[in-house]
What does this fold into?
Amino acid sequence: MKFKTIFFLFNIVLIIAFLFVLLMPILLIGQNYFSLFISKDWYVLVLFFLCIAGVNIYFILNWKLFRLLETEDWQMLSRYLEEQVYKKKRIRKIYVKMLLNVYFLNSEMDKINKLEEYLKNEKPQYLLYFSVEFGIPYLINSDAVSSESYFGKLLASRKTANVEWIRWNYAFALMQKKEFEAAKAELLKLYGESTNPLIFLLTLYLLDSFAKMDIGVKSKVDEGIKKLRNMYGLKKIDKELESNSDNIEVVILSQIIREAKERYLTAESNRFTPDTVN
It folds into this structure.
């Protein structure tokens, strides 16, 4: 359904709902009710019209943005958002989030780095809020040293958001650097603390790399698979994936998540070990 159609339908529904609330008592009780309503509850009418005006003003002010989203013109959307953030200094969370999504869609990692530098001066608090997103270019570029440094510093910060994702990324970076014992220690922490079904699934996937050489880890993975099936199951994992459809890292890790689902939630016992540790 086109945005313009939604806009007009929304207004029509609001008006019909108001008329229903206003006119139904008049039809049931009589015209005297209307006079009483106007004399005592006139402010309800004012609030209603202010509500409609506010919603319409919001839509009109953001009309171009909604149109660009509707047409999926990512290049034009990128330019529009850059103008809002860089030129007009309208540095809102929603704009930053959309800019990051567009940059990933367009594979413009250099622009993500530019945005990160810009926010350091203008909105440093956003760096912690979007800490996972700004770290993804390091993972994509297989820059293990920078990735380990970036996520390691975030873990040391008490203000960091999305700690579970940060720790998983840190462990992944350590594995890329072949610091397997340190990576295993971080993954075991996640194994015991994670409340996120997707991160727990991904943690099992990486821990499975150590199962052949460490009987203790193998036991943990086996227990984890039972927990995964009993507490979550395939349907809950799929529901979690759906609710995280706007999570950039979930999109990037979709292939790994798919493999982990097939290994632990559809196969019975003959799982294979990922060739991460040589």
The radius of gyration is 26 Å. Residues 89-129 form one domain. The chain has a mean pLDDT of 87.
